[in-house]
Request: fold
Amino acid sequence: MTQRMTPPERMMAVMSGQRPDRVPVIPFALGYSSKITGISLGDWYADGDKCFEAQFASMRLHGYEETPMYGYASMGALEFGGEIEYPYGKGQGAPFVKKHPVNEIEDIEKLEVPDFNKELPGAYKQADKLASRCAELGLPVSVQVGSSFTAASVIANTSEFVSWLIMEPKAAHSLLDKVCSMFINAIDYFAEKYGAENMLPFDGGPSESNTLISAEMFAEFAYPYMKRIHTHLKDVGVNSVLMHPCSDQNKNIPHYVKLREEMGWAGKYVWLFGPETPVKDQIKAFGGHDVVCGNINPSLFLTESYEDLVEICGQNILEGMHSPSGYMLAAGCEFPPNAEPIKLMAMLDAAEKYGRYE
Reply:
């Protein structure tokens, strides 16, 4: 089939409340793109230029609508003085923490919030390289600005941090406050350098999912810092934010709904929930104002055939494509780095087969 819109035109249509020729495809293809250029996954994360080049090549090869971005679930530890390992080893899929900067409650007091007016901290050096390349081409600048809760859970030892929520809540809040301040400093740096109107920052993480904490704990320890970050995004003039509440966050949805209500923000969220959250539930909660994303279980791209994936994606498209404020087909978390290219092609082919508006 002839595609009448280019990928940028298709994204612009959805984000501006218009109807594109077909549903956009956002495969969340991060580490996967390293194989397109033969870049090692470790170099992909260690070098922002290589990270951009791999993602941009994958975009052009497959024809999907996703913009290059830089980030990973363990971001935060390096920025606060810890150590990470890049995924050069067999079976490794993303950077992981080698040394936590916080091992005891007393360590929290010693932490200094990274100052973006000096040398950029940790992975933000690489994020800035990628942002610069995106800005040169007029692509959105997509930088990680959350979540404070997930970042705090890797700055400290995760099991210790979770225990502090119950046993030492004051210490947990102290750490969360410092992490939140780091993300606000990041927002200020990137908004000033590239223009808030050109940003598509992203927030979200797995540690606040209901598999780890209750909705009540989310309200106490995650929500206040999320609201602080998003209020700041609103105040500096950011128009849209990619939200990825990873894993099972169904019981947290009322708090995400409350976020917009309490901020009074006129901007647009792009919601990418994990495969645990049905598309119809996303539409019910957010469809009146925001873009919702189809959320194909990433493991299926490793286990299912091309033909079956076209039908699985097609069903998701049919459930979501008429959401009032827009829909995109996506993987429910990162597209598997080792998946075969034909499995990603299944998403594009499903969009052509089932997702045409004309």
Remarks:
- The beta strands are 25-26, 83-85, 96-99, 202-203, 240-243, 268-271, 291-293, 327-330.
